[in-house]
Amino acid sequence: MSANIKSEARDGVVILRLDRTAARAFAPVLRADLMRALGHIASRDDCRAIVIAGARDGFCSGIELAEYDAAPVAPSPSDLCRAVADCPKPVVAALHGNVLGAGLALALAAHARVAHEATRLGLPEISFGMMPGAGVTQRLPRLVGAQTALELMLSGRPLRATEARLRPLFHALVAQDTEGAAVALAARLASGAAQPAPLLGFSDPAGYQKSIAAMRKQIGTADSAAADILRAVEAAQLLPLPQGLDLEDVLFEERTQSRSARALRHIHLAEARARVLPEMHQPGPRDLRLIALTGPLPGDLAARLDAAGCALRRVPDEGPGDGWADLWIEAGTPYSDGPARLRLDTGAGFGPNGLWLRYTQATRFAEIGVAPGVPAADVAGLARLLSAAGLGYVRAALPAAGPGLGHVLHGALDLAALELLRAGLNAAAIDAGAQALGFANGPCLAMDHEGLAAAQTRLAALAPHLGLPAPAADSPLAERLTRGAVGRAAGRGFYDHPPEGPRMPRATATAPLPGGVPPERALHAALVNAAERLMAAGAVLRPGDLDVVAVRARGQARAAGGPLFQADERGLMAVLKDMKALAPISSPLWSPHPVLLSRIKEGLGYFGRRAAGISPA
User: Fold this and answer.
1) Of the given ranges (58-72, 133-147, 366-380), which has the lowest mean pLDDT?
2) Peptide bond before 399: cis, by omega within 30 degrees of 0?
3) Structural domains of the chain in order of their starting residue, each with its CATH number
4) Nearest one of 298, 395, 409 to 344, comparing CA atoms
């Protein structure tokens, strides 16, 4: 029938198999082919009913995230699901494997469902700041009630089809031959011997409303994907299905195009792209199974490598003997031999040579530092090992990345904070600006926790990588150290630290910045300029990698999207205006990088978006 739809007739029942190989994605071409197939088969006299099934290892995993950021392509999942529900002949969904997102919407639009016992159903949209669409918020609660529907939609976690609360979804759960059971059910529906699934979700109206009220207390009334889901599920009981579907379409579109949803999709896709390294395209990645350790591994890294199938062996400090390991992880003095050497950054940053790794346990994230001359097989093997261990990663090119991408972005934020202190802002205003950008902690409070002497040493080493001199003797850091305000441990730093928590010293004033630039935009402009410097030096493969580093290694909220996503959202011309206003405070931090000026002149953003504003004079 088509490359994406394969058909087979059995005793008057036509099976339409979704044969899209790429992750079972519900792509536009697949939707169009299925819509045409439905229309054609429904008009055939020799067809009594239809079964929709998935080929190979699954039914349908939903829509690829990138589609939501492109122009809409017809038919939409909502249009297709309406066509399935309105089909004049019975439609049965035969489910196996993963049934996710819009794939579950397709299954719910069918008149009945048969599932293999191992089937997993899930609605991951809320993980991306979105809500389910294509009829899910209206059809699912009609079948299983508000409580189960909300639990599935608000958790984002997949459930096994055998869970008792999902039982009303299925006419049958089978251990084998799902298609055969679906064909038999379709024939019974066509003959009137069976009826479509009953709407048991509305059998207890008071209980339905009680579930809505209880969930509203939990999530509140703030503008969020969860609030939109709750509103749609409540409407399912109050509105006829066509009007409920119309409301869902409106809510879905608004939520999908919200800033937080775009940011979450951006970070998810950027993480996926960051895992593709140029070394992977070369033959022969090293198989790293036996790992020699010369010291402790950070956090839970050893446990994760062990779970990935590696055998870890500790060796004496004097070094390896016969080079028996696939990978030497060196926490101390580097050895001169060994088949593959990996040095750990324990805080001081990467060196200019060799292969390096920095691991952030809280976010299960690694930054790989790769210097010239490192064999591609070693880099590809390490990347494959990290993936098997369930870790995200980005690649940093050495020595261009200096001590590491995360270190440089961290340093840019801290050094910008010091310059803003010198310009008259107080620490609280600066930290509030960082929080407005999505960082959990502001730089001034973070330096207090680190200790101002340690921060001064760290920033002295980082400053040259940003074209800055080390913090001078009259810097805000040095001034506080001179007065004994050395950080939280001493009870005083940029903040006072009484037992009840940090507070600003009394009579601490704050002054406006040039051009009225607010602190969050000043910090953001410094981050963008630092990112441009790294990209121009060839330290990073793609702009999105730096957003991933900001989120996974430096603690920026996923819903913020990263500094370069934020720059595209604001428009690069607006960022440039802030830089020009702030450049007199610190030229290296805020004088716009030449590549940024080129982007604006060419009307380009970082991620295929047009830069807002006009070209600079």
Assistant:
1) 58-72
2) yes
3) 5-255 (3.90.226.10), 284-399 (3.40.50.720), 406-601 (1.10.1040.50)
4) 298
Sign of CA dihedral 472, 473, 476, 481: positive
Cβ pair 157, 31 in contact under 8 A = no
Task: Give Cβ neighbours of residue 460 (< 8 Å, ≥ 6 apart).
Answer: 470, 471
Q: Are 599 and 576 in contact (CB under 8 A)?
A: no
The dihedral built from the CA positions of residue 389, 409, 523 and 617, taken in this order, carries a sign that is: negative
Collapsing DSSP states into helix, strand and coil, what is residue 93? strand
* The pairing of beta strand 120-122 with beta strand 392-397: unpaired
pTM over 0.85: yes
- Cis check: omega of the bond before 75, within 30 degrees of 0: yes
Q: pLDDT of 412-425, one tens digit each?
A: 999 999 999 999 99
Q: From CA 395, how far away is CA 350, in angstroms rounded?
A: 12
Q: Distance (Å, rounded) from C-alpha 110 to C-alpha 94? A: 10
Sheet with 159-160, strands from edge to edge, namely: 98-100, 120-122, 159-160
What does the alpha-carbon distance between residue 341 and residue 338 come to, in Å, rounded to a whole number?
6
SS (H, E, C) 521-580: HHHHHHHHHHHHHHHHCCCECCHHHHHHHHHHCCCECHHHCCHHHHHHHHCHHHHHHHHH
Task: Look at residue 616 and tell me whether its pLDDT is greater than 50.
Answer: no
pLDDT reported for residue 45: 87
Give pLDDT tens digits for 416-472. Answer: 999 999 999 999 999 999 999 999 989 999 999 999 999 999 999 999 999 888 888
Instruction: Say which residues have a Cβ less than 8 Å from residue 95's Cβ, sequence separation at least 6.
Output: 54, 59, 107, 113, 114, 115, 116, 119, 121, 161, 178
Q: 25: which DSSP letter?
A: B
Residues 6+ apart with CB under 8 A from 454: none
Alpha helices, DSSP H only, in 9-98?
Answer: 28-42, 77-85
Count of helices and strands (H, E) across the chain = 23, 16
In angstroms, the CA 152 to CA 13 distance is 32
